[in-house]
Inverse folding.
């Protein structure tokens, strides 16, 4: 993105950009996922009678084994760096974009204050801007435990959404670390 002003591209525009940059098209399914597609998903395509949207809803229902986001924070003693990977949501509805590429949603770092990263279902991280919200509270003098606690309270006030299972990881610039897993009970 050094040569362009854009910060996020998805869908056909992202594909065109990759093509224009000389990147080649490759299959993105790992062998185990391809096998799962062949065994579990492909047979449903021919026999499912309640329509495409119902099939997509069935296939994309959150499953415990479907989430394996990796988040990382590192310090060289002078500043913090962060990164996030995501496998995405298996068999998601076409066009679904997760939280990892959304600034301030799935992860955020400011070396002056701290870091936050989220795993599991990214919809809630995007909806509430969880990572940026935690770091902003650190900026305004809240401790990392209080900052994460405030996010949990904020999410608990919501009346719907995929709150159960959201994991919030945060650390202040001194290295104090907090991990909180929201369950359906945390929802209020």
């Amino acid at each position: 993105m050094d040569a362009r002003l854009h910060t996020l591209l998805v869908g056909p525009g992202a594909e065109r950009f990759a093509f224009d940059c000389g990147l080649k098209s490759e299959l993105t399914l790992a062998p185990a996922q391809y096998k799962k597609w062949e065994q579990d998903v492909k047979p449903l395509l021919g026999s499912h009678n309640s329509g495409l949207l119902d099939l997509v809803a069935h296939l994309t229902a959150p499953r415990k084994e479907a989430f394996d986001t990796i988040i990382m924070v590192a310090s060289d003693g002078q500043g913090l760096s962060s990164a996030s990977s995501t496998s995405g949501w298996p068999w998601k509805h076409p066009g679904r974009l997760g939280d990892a590429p959304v600034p301030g949603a799935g992860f955020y770092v400011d070396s002056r204050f701290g870091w936050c990263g989220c795993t599991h279902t990214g919809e809630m991280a995007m909806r509430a801007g969880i990572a940026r919200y935690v770091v902003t509270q650190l900026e305004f003098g809240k401790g990392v435990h209080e900052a994460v606690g405030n996010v949990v309270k904020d999410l608990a006030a919501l009346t719907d959404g995929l709150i159960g299972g959201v994991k919030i990881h945060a650390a202040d610039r001194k290295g104090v670390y907090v991990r909180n897993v929201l369950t359906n009970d945390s929802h209020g």
Summary: The two ends are 42 Å apart (CA to CA). Residues 31-47 form the longest helix (17 residues). The first strand starts at residue 70 and ends at 75.
